């Protein structure tokens, strides 16, 4: 059954592509949402960027499909419409009947009453506004499309069962050819576990060009004197040290070694191996927003607190890897 979804401003400022994610339902944007978005388009923050993006997307739909006030096709059989009431709605029982939130809320109530046979759902990420909407008899939902269920993400690790003889051959030769039925994808990390009464395991990575699972190439002495402490860190370090892998994405909780391993691999390939002329480390400053300008000092001094975790890890790596014995007294000497 088709539904009418009325979107609050914060949904579009969070995800400007939300207008394409309501399948075959009808999407309604109160004109006050467009007005509120216009207030943020000049910001240099992520919110400002999203405001400009949704404005551009709406204009593209208008130019391609006609008037937004009449409604345009969008999604998988749904429509998008900008609702313009005859007069500005007022929520008389509210402390501030003229607020933008209440104008959007009252618009949703009027649409619900105008289409009694079609479920009308008010979508907002504002918890207090959802409570008020619910108290007024509106069906409300939070915008959940942006949520990431970590349990459903690919881990990049698979486990295969082998015989004891096959695992012994893997340890001896450093390679194992899996059955084609396994359908492994390139660079997936593999745990080989034998079927003996006391199971043993071996760690490898699938190389699609040869069709083999090869043993990890992490040096026994570690990288810049850093040794992986679990299988996940071993897999990550093996990928980071392979020049044929152009992009490695590592996700994990704080303190699990993501930054440390990436910096260690980068220092080894740049400083020790000389494979690269320069190591670039970047962090997005978007979360700082305008607060960055209020910090004292020049640009470098403003960014120093934001980059301090990187500096701390570099200092630790230089101390652990004997940087001072190689004539490097501090991480600042690595900067050019």
Structure description:
It is a single chain. The chain has helices at 9-14, 31-38, 46-65, 100-114, 127-135, 164-173, 231-240, 258-272, 291-294, 299-320; strands spanning 4-7, 26-30, 72-74, 78-83, 120-123, 139-141, 157-162, 175-176, 189-194, 201-207, 212-215. The protein contains ten helices and eleven strands. Strand 5 (120-123), helix 5 and strand 6 form a beta-alpha-beta unit.
Secondary structure tally: strands: 11
CATH superfamily of the largest domain: 5'-nuclease
Major sheet, described briefly?
6 strands, mixed
**In terms of structural class, how would the helical and strand content be classed?**
alpha/beta
Number of domains: 3
Binned, the helix content reads 25-40%
Query: Helix count, per DSSP?
Result: 10
Within the CATH hierarchy, at the fold level, what is the topology of the largest domain? Answer: Rossmann fold
Cross-sheet strand order for the largest sheet: 3-4-2-1-5-6
- CATH architecture descriptor of the largest domain: 3-Layer(aba) Sandwich
Span of the ends, CA to CA: 62 Å
Shape: elongated
Radius of gyration: 28 Å
List the helices and strands and how they pair.
Elements: E1 4-7, H1 9-14, E2 26-30, H2 31-38, H3 46-65, E3 72-74, E4 78-83, H4 100-114, E5 120-123, H5 127-135, E6 139-141, E7 157-162, H6 164-173, E8 175-176, E9 189-194, E10 201-207, E11 212-215, H7 231-240, H8 258-272, H9 291-294, H10 299-320
Parallel strand pairs: 1-2, 1-5, 2-4, 5-6, 7-9
Antiparallel strand pairs: 3-4, 8-11, 9-10, 10-11
